[in-house]
Amino acid sequence: MNTLAQTRPTPPRGPAEPVFTDEDFACIARIAQREFGLSLPSAKKDLVQSRLMRRLRALGCADFAAYCARVDGPDGAEERAELVSALTTNVTHFFREAHHFRLLEEICLTPHLPALRAGRRLRLWSAGCSAGPEPYSMAMTVLAALPDAPRLNLRILATDIDPAILDRARSATYGSDEIRAIPEPLRRAHLEPAGPGRHRIVAGTAGRVHFAALNLMADWPLRGPFDAIFCRNVAIYFDKPTQERLWQRLARLLRPGGLLCIGHSERLHGPATGLVTSAGITAYRRDDPAHPLGERTDR
Ligand SMILES: C[S@@+](CC[C@H](N)C(=O)[O-])C[C@H]1O[C@@H](n2cnc3c(N)ncnc32)[C@H](O)[C@@H]1O
After folding, report:
1. Among 87, 114, 143, which residue terminates a domain?
2. Residue 92 Cα to ligand 1 middle (Å)
3. Any idea which UniProt keywords this protein has (predicted)?
4. Domains contained in the chain, number
5. CB-based burial of residue 144 (10 Å sphere; 0-12 exposed, 13-18 middle, 19+ buried)?
6. Are both 176 and 280 inside the same structural domain?
7. Which of 130, 137, 182 to mutate to test the pocket of ligand 1 (most atoms within 8 A of CB)?
8. How far is the CA of 261 from the centre of ligand 1 (A)?
């Protein structure tokens, strides 16, 4: 699940809590839509209130109107990052939807092994990477397929809007429960002990992933093309026009034949459908005009 998952219980409201008016909710919904493409239906009002109470307390805001003014003001950029962090969840895990990692191997690696060994560039992007398991799973998949590549030209970009979650991702350290989904041989190859019950991705693997803060709603200072983009469980609560713009922008950054994977409850729609062809469950390949029948080259 992505934003506003229903799994967190709404705590009972204390008597002294400020009132969250319909105008306050409308203000928050407008900022969330404008800045992050988040769609907040009125049914989420109580949930939004409980999520934001912590921010009001942290900032010492007397009421939600003061909070809205702060977050919407010229100095509100930092708090807007906190807002999106409060309104979204970071749920993720290693090798989530394992079939996407199999496709990464089948489409982007196996057919190109000789070229990749010889230094052909391989660019992957985890957009909305949360605490890092997704891009690190990509790194493990590539390194398992090319364990001894002498000139591996691999770069994995991992971006998220939430600076705090990016700090966690950069630490590359996880608890025993979190690493359970990593197959045993990959655990042996890519993890080292990091204190009781803690495990760190080894530097040679973690160093393949470059983390950066990026709001998917803003401009992207990125140059493609990418061989694969995973943007999973991020767009699910964006409104439809925002999703359509996002899918199109992502598809355009793929190299011909490149792979786009989206979340298990997301569906590609809009102009992007004219750029890609289904490659499996919630997976798509950028059409290759030079090889319309599906034959791909190793460019
Ligand atoms: C549920 S996690 C998904 C993590 C991973 N992609 C996966 O499927 O396991 C969603 C992530 O999207 C990020 N996110 C939400 N809105 C975003 C936006 N507008 N730009 C960039 N990241 C965003 C959140 O901070 C969160 O870390």
Report:
1. 87
2. 9
3. Methyltransferase, S-adenosyl-L-methionine, Transferase
4. 2
5. middle
6. yes
7. 130
8. 14
**Structural domain of 226:** 98-286
CATH code for position 53: 1.10.155.10
Q: How is residue 23 written in tokens? A: 């105008």
Residue 216 near ligand 1, beta carbon < 6 Å:
yes
* Cα separation, 85 vs 213, whole angstroms: 13
Q: Is 186 near ligand 1, meaning CB less than 6 Å away?
A: no
> Is position 233 annotated in a ligand binding site?
yes
Query: CB count, 10 Å around CB of 185?
Result: 10
Tell me which residue of 103, 102, 141, 117 sits closest to 298, measured CA to CA.
117
Q: Are 222 and 157 in contact (CB under 8 A)?
A: yes
Same domain, 111 and 65: no
Catalytic residue among 55, 123, 160, 288: 160
Q: Is 83 touching ligand 1 by the criterion CB < 6 Å?
A: no
The yes-or-no answer on residue 298 being catalytic is no
Per-residue pLDDT of the chain (299 residues; tens, 9 = 90+): 344 444 445 555 555 678 999 999 999 999 999 988 888 989 989 999 999 999 999 999 999 999 999 999 999 988 998 898 888 889 999 999 999 999 999 999 999 999 999 999 999 999 999 999 999 999 999 999 998 877 899 999 999 988 889 999 999 999 999 999 999 999 999 999 999 999 999 999 999 999 999 989 889 999 889 999 999 999 987 888 999 999 999 999 999 999 999 999 999 999 999 999 999 999 999 998 777 644 443 33
Answer yes or no: is 3 within a domain: no
Annotation marks residue 80 as catalytic: no
CA proximity to 258, closest of 289, 228, 295, 225: 228
